[in-house]
Amino acid sequence: MAERPPIRSRLAWQEEVGAPQELRSPLDPKQVDVVQPLQIDAGWLPVYQFEKRCVDSIVSFVSSPEKEESQKIPFLQNICDLCYNSKRHGPPQGLDLFCQRYGLAENIKVLLEEEPRNKLRTAVRWNAMLAIAELSAVERALEGKEASLLQACFSSVFLLPPEEKMQDMGRYLFLKTMEAMDNMLQALVLGSSASRVSELLQNIFQMLLTFTTSERECVQERAVGRIEKMSSALFRHPTLASCARYLRTSERTDIVLVFIEAMRDTSIFDKKRATDLLDMVMEFPDFWLADLPKIMRCIHKNLDSINTAPARQSVASLLLLMADRRPGKVLTTLLRIAPPGDRTALDMWDMMISRPRPLKKILKNLRKRLLVIDSMFPEGVISGSESPDMARKIQSLLPQVVGLLDHSNTDVKRRVLTFFCSVMGHLKREEARPTVEQLEEKLLPLFDDESSQLRELSICLFRERVQSVMVHDKKRIKSYVHRALLPLFFRLSDQSNNVAKLEQNRSRAQEFLSQSLPYLRDAQASLREAAVRFIGLAARPLRDRREEEKLAEICSALRPLETDSKSFVRSLAAQTIVILSSPREQPRSRWALQALCCWRR
Question: Of 431 and 47, which is predicted with more confidence?
């Protein structure tokens, strides 16, 4: 049986608790007023012959219209003796009916509610916890009354002043009361029937979680402490462990969130205890880590305020564990909750990929995500690539990302180009070479994309990244650049200032006439005009070689522009057709094409 609080005289307990005083031993009959039993028939209770004094004393107390202060603690201790000794003499037959008939649970609740909230001066609370624990072993004695009893217990104890404001005896009583409360909570669960244990566990944790949101720090700490004790007992107590499965996912998750929030710099909760709590969570991940998205959001919300080394390391260990166990869910959640450039998300990325195994799993899942054709390339990946260390770790994604440049969605291609510009800026030339070989054929079509932003990004990536890698392969770069220069030449007339400015230092072009024909249908009049001018220059050598068929084809492509909506395009197209259709009467000047094919430094 649990340690019993002392009984003191009525006068002593009414005084404020002062200096430490010696506590007397358990119930001494000489200290207790003699209780005259009521003239009722209690002989029907089997235990009556063994506990006549306890039964008569309990009946006398509950039947009295006024409850004397000096009789409160004896009443509670008589309940403990009655329940405890009943078990010693066999099954406590009829005891449940006795408890219900005399409203023992209701009387305990009233005693707790009558205790002053601003001071701790008696052992009533302590004895009440012990009495409830003993009653929990009596079948149906507390049935339907647990919730109201719990609320009375928590309010009576949690709302007391901070411990530092209590005197020595008050602090002692408080610690013993909290210890008795922890034992009482476990006893309630153990004494509950299988059909009701789920509801009881939910009530206990829901009430405790409510107190963790109190504005008073001491209330928060007391509630979190009870959650810690109860959570730990659910797995370490050999009998309670079977009850853990009855706790709903939402309650489990809310408890984990409380543990994470307890690690904040501003939290008064002891950080060592908080890390111990998370260690317990990680010890039983199947049970606690049921709602990963909610836990991830909580970490993202609080990580900036968790700066002590042990606490931050504990959070990092939790992230690593979740990434290792469910990389796909962790990846999807972080990409969804983190805005572009979010520094907290980058810290979370760093934590999750700091070990080879979770890194490998995350990258594998990220590749799968990238291969879904209608998925949007995640902004979180772009944000992560801004870090040199992160860029090197995720470079294995580049082959999969290149394929997304064929995506029909403009925004996906924009994100992919931004990603490449960022990642390749952190890679060495040899590291980037395999990716450049894949990028070569993908970039050229983007020079002519309808989106000016895509044109700008693709040209920028070509100029700043691709050529720097290919610089030592002169033959290959010459061939590639020749193919790229015609689009770049036309983009000098691009109405998007950023695109045109990117190529102000590029004026070399090659005679690839077939590449220029699509620009005759471009939506921008300035590009149609530039195309006509270039074709006029590039096609003149055909007149010398008498390639009438090719010239006719070119003129046929130019004729629709004679009805162009812009007069300057119509005029230039008509003039070019006339020139190309007329015979050459004098040696051509090679100046124009030479100028076109030379670098302007």
Answer: 431
Q: Is 195 helix (H, G, I), strand (E, B) or coil?
A: coil
Q: Average the pLDDT over 293-304 and give the result.
A: 95
Per-residue pLDDT band for 395 (boundaries 50, 70, 90) equals: confident
Place of tokens 């853990």: 244
**Among 367, 436, 449, which Cα is nearest to 401's?**
367
Q: Is 482 exposed, middle or buried (0-12, 13-18, 19+ CB in 10 A)?
A: middle
Work out the average pLDDT over 86-100: 77
Token digits of residue 209: 């979680």
Tokens of 91: 């099954």
What does pTM read for this prediction?
Answer: 0.59
Answer yes or no: are the C-beta atoms of 316 and 303 closer than 8 Å: no
The H or E element that residue 175 is part of is: helix 168-191
| Listed residue (238, 139, 141) closest to 194, CA to CA | 139
- Whether pLDDT at 460 is above 90: no
User: Residues 490-503: what's their mean pLDDT?
Assistant: 51
H-helix segments, 303-378: 309-325, 327-337, 343-352, 356-370
Q: Is the pLDDT of residue 9 over 50?
A: no
Query: Measuring CA to CA, which residue among 240, 234, 238 is closest to residue 255?
Result: 234
DSSP 8-state code for residue 139? T
Q: Which two tokens stand for residue 207?
A: 């009430």
CB atoms within 10 A of CB 600: 9
In angstroms, rounded to a whole number, what is the distance separating the alpha carbons of residues 289 and 283? 11
* 3-state secondary structure at position 359: helix
Residue 240 is classified by DSSP as G
Angle, vertex CA 208, rays to CA 203 and CA 213, nearest 5: 130
pLDDT bin (cut points 50, 70, 90) of residue 450 is: confident
CA 441, CA 438: separation in Å to the nearest integer?
A: 7
Helix (H, G, I), strand (E, B) or coil at 520: helix
Q: Which DSSP symbol is given to 32?
A: S
Residue 125 has pLDDT above 60, yes or no: yes
SS3 call for 584: coil
- From the list 202, 201, 181, the residue with the least C-alpha distance to 191 is 201
The Cα 486–Cα 441 span in angstroms is 15
In sequence order, which residues have a C-beta less than 8 Å from that of residue 19 and are 6 or more positions away?
A: 167, 168, 169
DSSP 434-466: HHHHHHHHHHHHHTT-S-HHHHHHHHHHIIIII
The 3-state DSSP class for residue 96 equals helix
| Of 72-86, 140-154, 404-418, the least confident | 404-418
Q: Is 123 helix (H, G, I), strand (E, B) or coil?
A: coil
pLDDT by residue (tens digit) across 179-194? 999 999 999 988 888 7
Whether the per-residue pLDDT at 247 is higher than 90: the answer is no
- Amino acid, res. 481: V
